[in-house]
Amino acid sequence: xxxxxxxWDKYYLENIKIEDYGYAEFISKTLLRIxxxxxxxxxxxxxxxxxxxxxxEYRCFVKEITETRIDLVFKQDFEDxxxxxxxxxYLKTFSTTKKYSISEKDFDSINLSPEFxxxxxxxxxxxxxxxxxxxxxxxxxxxxxxxxxxxETANSISEGAVxxxxxxPTAISRIGLEKLKKLVYQYFELFITTYKSPLPDFEEFNxxxxxxxxxxxxxxxxxxFQPKKKAGLLLLLLELISSSVILFAKKDEKYKKLIKxxxxxxxxxxxxxxxxxFGEDFLSMNxxxxxxxxxxxxxxxxxxxxxxxxxNPQLSLQSQQLNLSNRNLKRAYIFYLIFLGLxxxxxxxxxxxxxxxxxxxxxxxxxxxxVEFLNEIVFFVNKILSALKIKPFLRTPSPVxxxxxxxxxxxxxxxxxxxxxxxxKVGSGRKNRLILRTQDTAFTGYLLNYLLNDLxxxxxxxxxIVIPCESIQSPDSxxxxxxxxFDIVYxxxxxxxxxxxxxxxxxLWKNFEGIIMGxxxxxxxxxxxxxxxxxxxxxxxxxxxxxxxTKEKQAYDFIxxxxxxxxxxxxxxxxxKNVDKISNDLYDFESVAKMLLQE
Length: 599
Fold this sequence. Notes:
The chain contains 27 helices and twelve strands. With 599 residues, the chain is α/β, with parallel strands linked by helices. Strands 1, 2, 3, 4, 5, 6 and 7 form a seven-stranded antiparallel β-sheet that branches. A five-stranded parallel β-sheet has the order 9-10-11-8-12.
C-alpha cells in the first residue's frame, strides 16, 4: 500500500456505506479502505470488482482483505472532490463577540511625555543620512542635559581654540555625526532606564528596559546583523510604554493586572485574551497604532510579529503583507532571542532559559561559555541599576534544571510516536525536507514548539524562521540568499502560497542547503485543486500527516489539557469556561483556547 499512500492524500469519511461490504474509512484518488466486521467471502484478493460511490460505479482492484478491512485500488483516479468535502469530518470553530471597541480617538489617548516624543524624533533624525546640524540642533535644544553634554564634549576636543564653543550647531559640527550618535544613544538609554511605567502592575519595568538595551547590543553580532538604526530597540521599548498593550490595559482592568511581566506579555493565551475581548490581538492592532503615531517603525514591526510567531508557532497572524527581507528575518530572530533573554534573566523563567542556552550553542558556545555570555549582560545591567539605586538586581545566570521531552509530553499513541521519529530523521540529517499535513495549523504549531526544542530530536540548537505563506508578496522572499543565515525555514500555511510563486518555491525546494519544513491544511484538498496540485507534486515525497484530531481522541484530549495548563500559568486560576461544551464536540485549537476564556 505504501506506493499508493505516498501519491495522494487520504481523507477520512463519515458514515458512508459501501453496499455489500461495509463503511468507507478513508478515500484518496487511488485508494479506498472499507471497514468490515468480519472477513468477507464475497470477493477475493486480486480481483477487479465494481464499487458504487455517490451514485457512480467505479472499477476497483482488491489489494488486501483482513478481518477488519478491505483495501481497494481505483482503476482510474477518484476525482469527486465535492463528495469528499461533503463527507469528511470538520473541526468546529467558536466565534466570540468582543467586549471593547477601539477607535482612532483611543489611539490618540496614549500619551507620551514631550521629552520622550522629542527623543524619538531625534533618534529618527540622527539615523537619517540626509540630516544636518541645524535640524539636529532644533531637536536637541529642549533636551538640556544632552545639549550641555554635546557642548562640553565639543570643547573638550577643541583645546587650544581661541574661542569657547557655546552654540549647539557649531558643537554638533565639531564632534561629528558618529560621536553625536553615541551621545544620543547613551542619553536615550539613561532616559529609558528611569522612565516611569504606565503599567502600575508590571514588575521590574526598569530592569526589563535596561536588559532590552543590553541584549540588543550583544545578540546581533552573533548572526552577523548590524543594526543600522535604533528603530528595532525603540519598538521593543515602546511595547510597554506606547502601544496597543497600554490601550488594552486602560480599557480592561483584568488585562491590566494580567500583564505583570514579559512571560505573560508574550504568552499565546494573552493573544487569545486580546482577540476575545478586543476583537484582535495587539500584534495586529499595533500596526494601525504605529501607522498613526510612529510610521518609521511599521517595517520593523513586521520583524516583531515574526518573532512572536517563532516564539509561538501556534499563533495565527492577521493576513497582512509583511516585509520578508533578509534583514527583517534576521531582526525577527534577534527579537525572539531577546524575548527568551528577558523571560529568563529578569523573571527566571526556566523554559525560556533552557531554550536560550540551546540556541546559543549554535554560535559555538559551550554551556559554560553561554552562562558567561549572559553573565556579562547581567553584570552590566546590575552595575547601572546599582548606580541609579534601582532594585531588585538581576540574578546571576546558571544552567537551568529544565528540559523539553516530546516522549513524556505527547500521548503515547503510534501517530505521535511516528511524528517524533519523523522529526528525528531531520535532526539526524537523514532528511532535510518535511511538510506536515494537518487539520489544524495552530495545533501543529504547538507541537512544533516541542519538537524543535527537544534535545533528543536533534534540532534544538538550529536557527529557524517561521514564514506565513499568505504574507509572501514578492518572489524575492523565496530567494536562497534571502533565507541565508537560517538552518530551518518553516513555511506556515503552504496551501495559501499564491500560485504565482510556485516556480520560486520549487527552485528553493531543490537548491536550499538547509532544512525546509512547513504545513498545509487537510481541508485545502490541494491534490484535487487544479492550481495547487502543482505545489502538491513538489512536496508530496516529503509530506507527513500530523495526528488527526477527528480521528484520535487522544489528540483532542491533549489539546484541551495543554490549553488548560496554559490558562493556569497565565491567570493562576482554574475557572475555565465552557468545559462541557468543549468536551462534547471537537473544536480547533484556537477555538478551545477562546472557549476557556469567554463566558
